[in-house]
Amino acid sequence: MDPLTSISLVANIAAFIDFGFKIVAAAREVKGSTTGTTATNVNAETLAISFQAIAANVKQTHLTGDSTPDEIRLIKLVDECQRLSEELLRLLGSLKVKKLGSRRHVLGIALRNFIKKSQRDELEARLDRCRNQLQLEIFQRTNDKSLERLKAIAETGEYQANELAVIKGSLKSLQSTTTTTKLDSTSLQGLNTLLKLCGQAFESAALSRLLASIGFEKMSDRLENIADAHATTFNWLLDDSDAVDPKATLGDPKSLEAQEWLRYTEVQDAYRKRSRDSLTLWLSEGYGIFHIFGKPGSGKSTLLKHLLKHPTAHELLQTWAGNKSLVKSSFFFWKGGSDGQKTLSGLYRSLLCSVFKQCPELVSLIAPSHWQLCLQGGNVELTDSEARSTFLDLIGRDEVFTHRKFVLIIDGLDEFEGDDTGLVRTLLDWTRLRPDGIKICVSSRELPLFQERFSSYPKLRLHEVTSLDIMDYVKSTLEQNEDLSATIDHNLTLRLGQRIIAKAEGVFLWVSLVLRIVERGLLQEDHPKDLEAKIDGLPTELEELFKVIFKGIELESHPIDRRRAMIILSLCLTRTKHYLSDLPLYQLSFLDEYEADYNFILRIPGPTEEKDDKERLRRCRKQVNGRCRGLVSVTASSSPNPEAVMPPTRRAEFVTITHRSLLEFFSRTEVRTVIELQTQGFNAIQFTCRSFVAQQVTEPDASLVQEVHLYTDLTALFKMTWRTGTMSTPAVTQILLDLEIIPFLLSPVKVPDQKRYRSGDYAWPFLWRRGCTSHRLVTAYDNRTVADLIIFLALEYGVPELLAPHGALEAGLLAQTAQSLGPQFLLIRAFLNLMEMPKYDRDGFDHLKYDRLLKCVAMCLRDGASPNIAIAADWKQPEISPEKDSMMETPATLWEILIWSSLCGWDDLDAAPFKGRQRLSSILPIWVLFLAYGADIEFELKFEPHHSVVVYQDAISVIGLFGEEKKDLFTPLFIPRTENVVVDMASKQDGLLSFSDVVGLLFPDEFPKLLPLINREAKKAAPDKTRVFDILKSFGLDLEQWSPPPPAPNLVLFPEIKGLSISKVFLRNMYPCYVDDPERGMVVYSHYGIELRDPNNPELKWASLID
Q1: Where is the DUF7791 domain (predicted)?
Q2: Could you tell me what percentage of the chain is helix, strand and coil, using 3-state DSSP and rounding each to the nearest 5?
């Protein structure tokens, strides 16, 4: 029994026992009652009936042979309470008056009540024993892992899919029992402790939901991927006592080199002192902007990360904040990252998440409507404009700054993609709006715009003051290298360090790259003079240094080293270009085996031990550093998990391009040409797949493999296959055959306890806001296998080869798993993935992916799936909501969702704006396929010029009526009362448009070809397979000669839609939704109706809408 369920049980038992005593006591009240049933009895009867259902459910679910003694004891208490509830109900029934106002019946009941005194006494005694047992259970719940789990949720906000509903139910029961007088003070205190923690956990989970809606993918990746400063680097900027003593870096203090170094450091000390004084003064007293600038690779991002995390920096900032709370938020722009990582909208979202996470008490003040939705268990969505307005509202409120001060750390202004002038103006506006409440530390390259606009603020030119840091880095790097310990001495490192400092001009990246050359020379036992000459001969500009290092790789004497280095560069660049996860070092370690034998995975002996893994990684790490000469780096995992169940040696290190400035160098045509020439014959897709498989084959314990890792690696594989243009049937078939080698394909995958949604969960559209929005479909946690996950991804990216396997693939486990899932479930997943296709990605509309997903849909229909089946297909108990099992009581079918999506506007307008009254159509082929395979054409559009929704009286209401029952599945569309060919047509037909009318309006050019399918369905005639085949063939949808036309523009029936259109099932079972209408205010949609509410008074709003 999970800990939270046991808490829920105890809470319900406490409520039941409390009311049980009231039932017995209330029996005495019947003497003066004309009905024989008091108000207390009625409430108790309701509770007893409710408890019976709870007890039965718990008993059925949790009474297993593996139950612990504590669980058995609790279940026995449940059993006794269940028996008591039945007897209490019988007692109530015997006391009820059958005829209202009958004195005779009342007297008779009084007599029976007297006779049943002994029964009441016995019930009271049994309740008393249950109460005593309950007090033990309360003590147990407040002293075991139940409390730990609640505390963990309260602290992190991370919870499993079913936990939120359990906590919410416990809250309700606990709130009704914490004032009871039937328990001792210790038990009451325990219940209050549980109540408090349940409340904290529930609010923390709600906050987690809100933060997830505000944030964006990879929001913190840039910060996490920045290497931490070297042990002593930059410490001197905050405290001179932490500065490296120049004398500590000396070898022989009387040597000429040492004396020169000491004179040099005296001059440097003056620069460093001025810089330290300037920075520490700003941190502790200053205001406005502090500008850190310097050359590329000089360590600006590393310094800002250092300031963000260093305790001394925090102490100085707290001095500035005084007795107010200090709120630190950061954002690291990155031009090579996702849209959110390089735009203003990403900045707003990241800062909001940071502030709300540190100051959750501000959420209800700044985002009351979103907060209330999250408290009801819902998922909210913030548009970019809403994120901006919410942040501006935050910094515009005086009460926010009454007890708080904010410091913002923003890195890489030159990495921002947009109007640089507008960005600078925005940051300055924030500090001018709150001169005593907000200050910002920014960094950038030395660009004239930033230099000029920040000229009046304190600043730090970083590359001028890092010489001592560079020397310390050089010495520690060389002297701590195990391979060099016998050949290096203090005097030599001092001489080499001085040479490097003279050439580096403060650029750490230059130093890092040159040290690789020096290390290589030392390993070859180069003479010190030769090493100095090599350093002197290197260019000082990074771009020129990149050329020298790359040329060295190109001219590498051994062809194996040269080729392997180029392959590693190619793999890293491909992943960066297509925004994939970094290359795992463990998978890269199979490169030598792959190059020697492409089929090496067939000869892997099996699981390996951890010591073998460590040796493999040590060797690969050394090869990467040696072959690539610093152009790529081995980095630690960006999100290490101390509780990770996968062996840390396998997931702890990744290989990536060393610095973002290298991406510009590698983008040069001549550089790419060299890499392509040197890697001819290398199949990157095949290696990625087979190295992933090799990692699984060597896995020592398959039960510990985490789903998130599998999903990340498989996603990289499928995406790389797409983006590199190699998505052909032979290539895909080979990938699937390679994946068949994984030895634990049918084993369940492990999911971290805190996961709310799982990788590969798919979406059900429930809300249209001129664009389709989705809710996650969550499947059962305990039985998803590796094969399931592969199939989910195959259906996300469109792999029809899996649905019509040939040869060896046909007999494989993947094909068998797909077959066992059935065509209906596969259709649902393929269709819902296809629903997302009209949304543009950074590379535009993906025609290949669309074509393959469409083919998957066609195959599923051919194999017996139906478009008329509801979305909640019964596969391993899928739930529409993590908290609500009854979500899909009367759900829409795939076909009904398609119709309504087509009318509401399928495209995401933020990404793919309409061109006039046209949009990119990718829906016609789906309509053709669904109609060809029996879609129900019973559908009407009903136009109501005069409707009851007062909020939209200036609009026409449009309602969809589905099926013979005329089901009204969605809230109305509201369209302006303007000239509209659709409205004019409906007005001539009593406000109704038939299915044929709608098809003719949506697809006027194709309507004649669709008419035979429509007429067949209208007559309920048996399908003429030859005729259907000919129609499919005319649209290029014949599976034997597949050639669907590319998406083309088509008419938008309702280009302007006011408000929302929402699934009514969603509203009945989940929570209200709202839209901030600029003309009206906050319009709330709920099962009560559509109402206009005051956004400044959310308490009133939610009190009237939510139970």
Answers
A1: 562-696
A2: 55, 10, 30
